[in-house]
Amino acid sequence: MLDQSDRGLLEATPLSSSDDQALLDAYSRAVVDVVERVGPAVVRLDVKAGQRRGGTGSGVIVAPDGLVLTNSHVVDGASRVSVATIDGRNLTAQVVGDDPDTDLALVRIDAPVTLPAASLGNSKLLKRGQLVIAIGNPLGFESTVTTGVVSALGRSLRARSGRLIDDVIQTDAALNPGNSGGPLVSSHGEVVGINTAVIMGAQGICFAVAANTASFVLGELVRHGRVRRAYIGIAAQQFAVSRRRQVAAGLAQESAVIVASVEPGSPAERAGPASLPAISFSCSTARL
Does 49 score more than 80 pLDDT? Predict the structure, then answer.
């Protein structure tokens, strides 16, 4: 015989299942809504190297007149690429600018077109655990959607040029070759990253260049065709200044930065050690 409390538990079970279903439906609706809004702005890029066929990657249209943001390693030094839209159009495009240091490139479609475009969001507002959606063409499978969460923020990733890309987003949204250059999108439908790399042999460890970095690079490429940046060529590290050194040097701060190494071929190496004054100010930058 069931007592009153047992009957209460049994009666509550269907309600709990219904609540779970409602949550799953809300999750699905959020993903579907984002895909319907941003999906048409995702394109496939085909790159030819000379007379032979090159690589294939993804890109995202960021301006209706045909500006496409993608990865530097997707265009791979090419001056022209082929762009395939979700509605089946094949268009030719010119590489406007290429920045290997952030693994980003900008492509402009030749034809006078008006295309659906996605907006870049503020990646500084991201939180760990936040839902994100990746859209691209992995392994040639067009318009593929995968979902995951923001696994970590503020990662560093070394570009093919050798420089570190800062403020990289780590996600567990499944990425494969061909996803490169495609958007990582928030549940609000804003592009928060440009998918750029996976760790081969690992599961759920994928990376995207942050949208804030992409916004800066986009502006530089539009205005100048390249990213103009100051570069010294030193690696520095922060350390605690002992009380004795503070008194001896007349310093007020408790931490400072020292030059740990000088990169080969950098402006710092060419100028010589005499050009590197002692650094004794507070700083959190690890690479200059």
Answer: no
Length of the chain: 288
- Closest among 265, 272, 278, 275 to 236, alpha carbons compared: 278
User: Hey, is 23 helix, strand or coil?
Assistant: helix
Question: Which is it for the CA torsion 140, 85, 143, 166, positive or negative?
Answer: positive
For the stretch 59-96, pLDDT in tens is 999 999 999 999 999 998 899 999 999 999 999 999 99
Asked whether the beta carbons of 47 and 81 are under 8 A apart, the reply is yes
Please classify residue 123 by burial: count the beta carbons closer than 10 Å to its beta carbon, then call 0-12 exposed, 13-18 middle and 19+ buried. buried
Q: Return the exposure string of 149-179: e unless at least 16 CB atoms fall within 10 Å of the residue's CB, then b.
A: ebbebeeebebeeebebbbbbbbbbbbbebb
Q: State the catalytic residue, choosing from 98, 103, 151, 186.
A: 103
Spot the catalytic one: 58, 72, 73, 123.
73
Q: Which residues pair with 258 in a beta bridge?
A: 237
Its pTM stands at: 0.75
103 is annotated as an active-site residue: yes
Q: What is the DSSP string of 261-279?
A: EE-TTSHHHHH-GGG-PPP
Reported as a single tens digit per residue, the pLDDT across 17-30 is 677 777 778 889 99
Task: Tell me whether residue 180 is one of the annotated catalytic residues.
Answer: yes
Please confirm, yes or no, whether 65 is among the known catalytic residues.
no
d(CA 73, CA 251): 46
From 58, 72, 151, 180, the catalytic residue:
180
pLDDT in tens, 204-228: 899 999 999 999 999 999 999 889 8
Q: What is the pLDDT of residue 122?
A: 97
Rounded CA separation 89/153 (Å): 36
The single residue listed with the structure tokens 């006078």 is 112
Torsion of CA 121, 124, 130, 135, to 10 degrees: 40
